[in-house]
Every structure is written in C-alpha cells, then in structure tokens.
C-alpha cells in the first residue's frame, strides 16, 4: 500500500519536469515575413518616349540588331517576348551599339545614363545581343568561306568602311547562317544570344547547345577546383545550442529518467 502511495509523488515529479521544459525560453520566434515588397523604382525615361526614339533610330539605322528584333519579332510577337520587346531595353542596347553613337535618337537616353546611371533604363538589356559590326563581320566571314549557303543572299558583297552591312539585316543573316550550321567557328555570339533569349525567328525551335569550351561560363557552373567540399558548409539546422539551453535539456532528461525508473521499480515490487 505504501508503494502504491508513492505513485502520485513520482508522477508529480515527472509532470513537473515536463512543465518546466514547456515553460522555458526556446529562443526568439522567427521574424514575420515582410507585409509587402519595396516598390520598383520608376525610370525618368518612359516607354512612350522610348518607342518614339526607337522608331526614329530604326528609320535611319535599320541594320541595327535591335531594329531587326523590333521589325521581325516585336511587330507581331511582342507578347511572347516582352523582355526583348521592351522599347526601353531596345533603345538602350541600340544606342550602346557603336554603329549608333551619332544618332540623334540616342540623345535623351545617353544624357540620362550619363547624369543618372542608376536609372532603371540604364540597365535595361537584351542579353548577349551582338553589335551590328559583329553580326556583319561573322556573316562576311561565313559567306567568304561558303558562298553557296542560302542565307548569304541576305547580305551580299562586303560590309561598308565602318565594318557594318548597311543595306540589309546583318543580324538576321548571321542568325540564319548559324541556324543552318550552328557548329561553325563564327557562331559563338549567336549561340550566346540564343541561349539567353531563344527567339524562334533567329534561333529556330530550341536553343542551340553551347560549345564545350563555352558551356561552363554560360551555365554559371563553378570550376571543379573552385567547388567547396560539402563538409565545409554548415546547415542552419545544425547550429549548436547555447550552454544554458543544453543544461536545461540535460536536467529534464535526468528528471524524466529518474521518475520513470522509480515508477517502474515501485510497480515491479
């Protein structure tokens, strides 16, 4: 009878230990997620003004790659390629092309990006779009080597003294040539563009495979020598407990074990 009378005492000891654990400080609660994200910065260069400048730019320099995109893609597929058909991006990239450096259509965005380079318009981009000179030089090189390729009919003869075909669309010519023979040595710039954009007009149904030498840089993969060993990083869940918290856990374990052991011994006898 005495042994049975000890049962409530042992149970009370165990309950007290559990209650102490539940009431202890387990650290600060996770910070709540922000209620809203910061508003996007507003550019001083509007899309309306950009569209006007793009029209002016392409009326005199139709051979620019941005003008090729604007006429061959954006005129009918702007909803499919919204980033590439953003008029602000097209003007910014077009006016960065050396072939357009003297165009009056570039005066506004050039002045803006000189005085306020942090303006969003000054980072608008069509990734990896080659310049008119690169497209012209690679087209000329391919067609000098293989003049019977069909796309060599797009831009004939030699580029102008500035190194640019000015009476045709050199970017389209370059793209069609590389679509026919993507592994030609002249095609890495086209590959870069299509890996970043994959516009069917210039790249066909799918993005081309990068060359082995360019695969690492285009994919962003680290080199093998630069890869960290898994053991050198620690998981947030593996953060060690503080000394005070570890002591509390140990005390709880001892009290719980003592209570359960005592209860077992009472019932066993």
The radius of gyration over CA amounts to: 34 Å
Number of strands: 0
Low-confidence stretches: 33-39, 211-252
What is the CA-CA span between the terminal residues?
11 Å
Number of contiguous helices: 11
Largest sheet geometry: none
Indicate the proportion of strand residues. under 5%
Give the rounded overall mean pLDDT. 77
Percentage of residues assigned to helices: 40-55%
Helix and strand succession?
HHHHHHHHHHH
Shape: globular
Structural category is mainly alpha
Question: What this model shows, in words?
Answer:
It is a single chain. With 269 residues, this protein is mainly alpha-helical. Among the domains are: 47-122, no CATH class; 132-214, no CATH class. Helix content is 52%, strand content 0%. It has helices at residues 2-23, 47-60, 65-77, 87-96, 107-115, 132-145, 170-180, 188-197, 200-203, 212-219, 243-268. The longest helix has 26 residues, at 243-268. The protein is globular, with a radius of gyration of 34 Å. Mean pLDDT is 77; it is low at 33-39 and 211-252.
């Amino acid at each position: 009878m005495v042994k049975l009378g000890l049962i409530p005492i042992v149970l009370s000891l165990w309950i007290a230990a559990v209650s102490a654990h539940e009431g202890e400080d387990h650290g600060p609660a996770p910070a709540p997620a922000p209620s809203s994200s910061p508003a996007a910065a507003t550019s001083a260069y509007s899309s309306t003004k950009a569209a006007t400048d793009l029209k002016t730019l392409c009326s005199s320099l139709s051979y620019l790659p941005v003008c090729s995109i604007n006429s061959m893609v954006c005129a009918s597929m702007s909803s499919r390629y919204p980033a590439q058909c953003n008029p602000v991006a097209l003007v910014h990239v077009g006016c960065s092309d050396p072939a357009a450096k003297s165009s009056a259509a570039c005066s506004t965005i050039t002045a803006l990006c000189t005085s306020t380079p942090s303006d969003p318009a000054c980072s608008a981009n069509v990734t990896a779009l080659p310049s008119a000179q690169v497209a012209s030089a690679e087209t000329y090189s391919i067609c000098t080597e293989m003049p019977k390729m069909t796309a060599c009919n797009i831009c004939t003869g030699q580029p102008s003294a500035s190194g640019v075909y000015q009476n045709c669309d050199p970017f389209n010519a370059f793209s069609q040539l590389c679509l026919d023979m993507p592994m030609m040595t002249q095609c890495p710039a086209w590959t870069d563009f299509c890996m970043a954009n994959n516009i069917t007009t210039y790249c066909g149904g799918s993005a081309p495979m990068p060359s082995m030498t360019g695969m690492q840089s285009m994919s962003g993969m680290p080199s093998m020598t630069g890869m960290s060993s898994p053991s050198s990083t620690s998981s947030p869940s593996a953060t060690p407990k503080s000394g005070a918290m570890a002591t509390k856990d140990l005390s709880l374990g001892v009290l719980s074990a003592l209570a359960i052991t005592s209860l077992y011994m009472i019932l066993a006898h």
